[in-house]
Write a structure and sequence with these properties.
The protein is an all-alpha fold and 124 residues long. The protein has a single domain, classed as Nucleotidyltransferases  domain 2 (Four Helix Bundle (Hemerythrin (Met), subunit A), Up-down Bundle). The chain has 7 helices and no strands. The chain has helices spanning 3-24, 28-51, 60-66, 71-80, 83-86, 97-100, 103-123. The protein is globular, with a radius of gyration of 14 Å. It starts with a helix and ends with a helix.
Amino acid sequence: MRDDIKVWWKQAEDDLDSAKANFEIKQYRVASLLAQQALEKALKALYIKRFNELKKTHDLVFLANKLDLPEDLRGVCKELDPLYLQTRYPDATGNLPSELFDKADTFNFISLADEVMEWIEKAI
């Protein structure tokens, strides 16, 4: 694996590990953000492999479409995409981000990110 792809993939794995660690200490907002970030960085690793350039965007749906991910995995990207703003900014939803995320939702976000990352790992 090329070094530029490797660093994005490694950071994606680190973010997913951090999401799981934050889940264990009940930091669900942080864990949800890190699940989204893990998936974003994994998609960027694949984007670099396919197009030989880094696409600077946080839009998971855009990346998934450009990379022609299977439809079910595009759906995962669509579900996790809003987390980038919802976990960070109170004006994104009108609620405090720390109050938006519970154990079940966060577990699901982590599981979904993990699922797409398994597919991406095989592709890179």
